[in-house]
Amino acid sequence: MSPGIPARTDRDPVPIPNGEAGTPGARASAGAKAEEPGIDPAGDRHGPAPADPGGPSILARLRHETRSHHEAIERVVDVDRLGASRSAYVRLLRGFLGYYEPLEGRLAGLPWEASGLDFRERRKAGWLREDLRSLDPDGPPCPTCPDLPEPVDLARGLGCLYVVEGATLGGRVVLRLIGDRLGIGPESGGRFYSGYRARTGAMWASFGRFAEAHVAAHPDRADAVVEAASETFDSLRRWLSGTGPGR
Ligand code: HEM
């Protein structure tokens, strides 16, 4: 891990419902969030809804059980290499676009809205397109990842969404570390890595509430959520290993 990156360890408080320690802001208090002026702390304070008292928090499980997958993908998205050249950064954005766009297409087919989550506001491919328009306007079309997870139901969709929603938390850290070196800011090539900007904490908290409520209503699908999250991390890592920075 590069210097300056707060560790995503199990020692940190996990986002367990109903507690200050459960918020991503609290988890990063010694690191990213504390230094991020744009984060909306009020959003975090609402906190995720209580989990089913009979079962563990799904967010806690996800965080714990995908930890090694996160570490593996962090090694591929190597911040030092990324910060060393704009072309590596552009290559990474192109890799993300080739994965996020088709994955979002699949996720959009699930009945999120009927279950209370506005999926449209969670699409991120448009941010990637915006960055690529400003940094690589004449680049060739992006190749599309052929090896995507299959979110056949909301539980598996939740696992996929966990990965891309959680990435907005670390993304802001990455932008802080490489932005100056590359001359990239939130409005100039760093839209994707700015995540939901000041709403990042609130969006993560509301995703958490949705995930906890879904699994509380369908406890038998908890394993499918975690499995889909692991598959998403792994397929994205494989894809970025071939297209990412330094390749
Ligand atoms: C160099 C690359 C990366 C770094 C430095 C990084 C760093 C971090 C950090 C510091 C957090 C914790 C943020 C907080 O507690 O507020 C985090 C959370 C997370 N990151 Fe990353 N990340 C990286 C890449 C990625 C990628 C590529 C993905 C997936 C697309 C990803 C998915 C996640 C998820 C799902 C979480 C939420 C964990 C949880 O609390 O359950 N990260 N990351």
UniProtKB/TrEMBL annotation:
Pfam families: Heme_oxygenase
SUPFAM superfamilies: Heme oxygenase-like
Span list, region Disordered: 1-58
Molecular-function GO term, any one: heme oxygenase (decyclizing) activity
Listed GO biological process terms: heme oxidation
Listed name of the protein: Heme oxygenase
Source species of the chain: Tautonia plasticadhaerens
